[in-house]
Amino acid sequence: MSEINNLEEGLWEKSSKPLDPPPIAQDAVFGEITEEGPNYRNVGWWGTAALMLKTQFGLGVLSIPGVFDSLGIVPGIICLCAIACILTWSNYVIGTFKRNHPEVYAVDDAGELMFGRVGREALGAGMCIYWIFVAGSGLLSTSIGLNAVSAHGTCTAVFVAVAAIASFLLASVRTLGKIKFTAWIGLVSVFVALMIAIIAVGVQDRPPTAPQTGNWESDYKVVNNLSFVDGITAVSSLVFAYSGTPGFFPIVAEMRDPSLYTRSLLMCQGFLTAVYITVGTVMYYYCGSFVASPALGSAGTLIKRIAYGISLPGLIVSTILVLHFPSKYIFIRILRGSDHLTSNSFTHWATWIGCTLSITVASYLIASGIPIFDNLVSLIGALLGTFVSFQPMGCMWLYDNWKKGRERPTVKWVLLSSWSAFVVLLGTFLMIGGTYGSIVNIVASSKATSGASAWSCADNSNTS
């Protein structure tokens, strides 16, 4: 009888203990995901497409008309489509590489597989610096919008600080699944603002920066004669417009079903390219060399204020995402393999807030130190956009396919191997040439007496 009582007591003790929550998912990166912690695998394919679009659409599009002004309409469209094709392939490789190597979270993990510790640290550092610069560009764009809406209501340095604080607070949301709704808001706001600006430049008599007396016709050029520096700088801006590529690693890592990644990618890139061509062609056709940069300033003071007012949520969302990516990368590197990664512990929160705050402060310093939009965009695209969007993806395809294809080579394998090597070489050329061109332009701009100096209070919404 005592044995039966002991057995009943043991069963009662077991049944009275709280059961551990069943795992939502077992992930190669995040470990066991439960309801007690953040769900890092909660983004559907529609949300993935929105995040992909917002990672690229919002900052880069504002420089496209200026690129067409440098290159001419026809070379501009050709170069844009070429960059779109190359980087769409790069993004596709990310999806296949992630499926082949589920433990990969960011480009640094891919670098370690291919090149060991050196590859990991080089690509990890390059990716973080890249996102910091992009976030700086986002803060700068937001300050331009605030200046436009408020008619330069206060010092520009104050607007950059306000943008940094607002972006930090929103970027501190821990999972992309909870941020994805902001991507839709941002996409709609920027798209509507661009459509308003396009309609306005089509019906206005002349751009606000053009001579306001006498007859005026747009001086757009089908093909433009330009120097190497101007040409490579313009192409670098196109690279920046598409170089959300390193952000696609963490996006696919948080998808519920990574097999739908390619569907989201094609939807994203198709829409993006169509909008870029439309915005660039229409605005440059009507404004010619008097097109403003960022592009929303091309339609006059009133429309500029309206367009920037509508687009401000989109500019902030772009900054939120590009602050979130490097913060999450550093956060995961610190806590990966520990229980704190998927819990709500003090260590978890302190590490996460520390990462987002550090990245935001660094981005604020960049935005304040290089306050000229065109120069910052081209420098980011050349020096860092190519480094994290071209060369690693060519190497990733070769890593997965070189050995097995070399044993029994096919025509398809030879062509794709040659293409991968070409992408690596092209990325290296654009990185070196574009960085040189961007630095030359930054030095020239810093010597000009335009008031665009570091930590300046001057109105930055009137550049052209």
From TrEMBL:
GO molecular function: L-amino acid transmembrane transporter activity
Annotated ranges, domain Amino acid transporter transmembrane: 42-439
Highest taxon, organism lineage: Eukaryota
Segments traversing the membrane: 73-94, 122-144, 150-171, 183-203, 231-253, 265-286, 306-325, 346-367, 379-399, 411-432
Membrane topology: Multi-pass membrane protein
Alphabetically ordered keywords of this record: Membrane, Transmembrane, Transmembrane helix
Region (Disordered) residue spans: 1-23
Principal location class: membrane
InterPro entries associated with the record: AA_transpt_TM
Localization terms from the record: Membrane
Entry GO terms, CC: membrane
Annotated family: Belongs to the amino acid/polyamine transporter 2 family.
Protein's UniProt name: Amino acid transporter transmembrane domain-containing protein
Organism of derivation: Aspergillus sclerotialis
Organism classification: Eukaryota, Fungi, Dikarya, Ascomycota, Pezizomycotina
